[in-house]
Amino acid sequence: xxxxxxxxxxxxxxxxxxxxxxxxxxxxxxxxxxxxxxxxxxxxxxxxxxxxxxxxxxxxxxxxxxxxxxxxxxxxxxxxxxxxxxxxxxxxxxxxxxxxxxxxxxxxxxxxxxxxxxxxxxxxxxxxxxxxxxxxxxxxxxxxxxxxxxxxxxx
Length: 155
Known about the structure:
This protein is mostly beta strands. The chain is built from one helix and ten strands. The longest helix has 4 residues. The two termini are about 35 Å apart.
């Protein structure tokens, strides 16, 4: 199981003021369940809190097939559904596609959003096959690892 709490927009060092009302808080958690030798399921949740805005949760279920191909669905509370697909090119490099369909009045003006993403993991752990906690069942998510994601949106 993994947990993450992100506090972006920390600008007190630059402005010498601490403005808590404009902070965005993110909490993420997920767990990988092995279903068979070739299938793993990863349910996850991300909650976003912003002062003056409703609490938003993304609830996602990914299936990892043969440690290479991810298929998933996601629901953003009172906002949208998404279909997701990602291909793990190498243990560190992946490319994916998702399609978001909004449930709000915005669907009167567009037919959804297409997204292509490219991800690269910088792993400082020398264990072979220990990326993203999928391949190595004893993988500890506290390992020294960083990711970079690039997203391209098409409406």
